[in-house]
Design a protein that fits this description.
Blueprint (H helix, E strand, L loop, with lengths): L11 H23 L5 H40 L5 H8 L6 H56 L6 H33 L6 E5 H18 L2 E6 L7 E5 H18 L5 E10 L2 E7 L34 H11 L4 E6 L3 E9 L4
Amino acid sequence: MKEIRQYNYHSPRKVAILSAILISFIFVVIDLSTSLTLNDFHLWSLLLGCLIIFSFSYFIIYNSLDKFIYARLKPIYKAIGKLDEMKKLKKKISKSEDVLEMVNQTVLEWRDKQQQKIAELQKMADYRREFLGNVSHELKTPIFNIQGYVLSLLDGGLDDPVITKKFLQRSEKSVDRMIAIVEDLEEISKFESGELILHEEVFDLLSLCREVVEFLEIKADTNNSQIIIKTGDYRKLPVKADNKRIRQVLINLVDNAIKYGNQTNGRIVISFYDFHDHYLVEISDNGIGIPKESVPRIFERFYRTDLSRSREKGGTGLGLAIVRHIIEAHRESITVRSKPNKGTTFSFTLKKGKG
């Protein structure tokens, strides 16, 4: 919350005027108290003297305050990197404005910005620390597995062809997992840095969904899941997007629904909704759902819930993070809603294409 403090300061001009009036008044009182006679000539000379003293006092006090204040303010503005603000302040000195209050507000605004930057840096430091810990944890398992297999082979396992083949095959799986993690991290890095360029074109989203379902059909059958595409009255759904990347999004989301959905009678539904110049795509499952406290973090790198995102299911833990980056790169949005023991629904939008 932004904090604003009010002070009853006067501008240098007001201070100079009040001081000059006070000096003039003192002059008049002294003159009248020492004068023996009071005539028209004396009154006019008194008035003229009062005017001269007022003008002279105002000029001296005003310029002295001006130099004093700005001599003190310049180091402050220089320290907070707002030296250009001094020029604006000098222009306002001629007006009856509370200069010190303006300085106070400038410093408070600078302080608020610094506190915000510190908070953001702290947040980034926490995120970096958590990210490095996650990367270390994800890579540690396959590395230790490979190390164990190699040591076993060196300790005599090479003499047994069956054990040799078995351990080499397991080592290959661990290497593949490490490669997948590195490739996914590299892809996310490209999205975040803006290096990855989308190749947008108009294509039929409905046909692409059918290709993805066909691609994952065997895996769905193995996990006792059924994938349903609700086409409604649509025969074609032309969208303008990167075909390859949207295919990646669909594969990740449907694969997610297969792995973490209902393992006895899984039902995965892909639905489409017409929203003016966009299509809304929803992918739902009837699994155990995502805990409420985990929903806001579900798109973070390596984040898995204790119940439905177990590492035993495989994957790199980066799939949903990649999905979010792809959708956001298309200048669209993706959301998730979930209920315990009811299932999870991922929704994202795509711009319509002319076709």
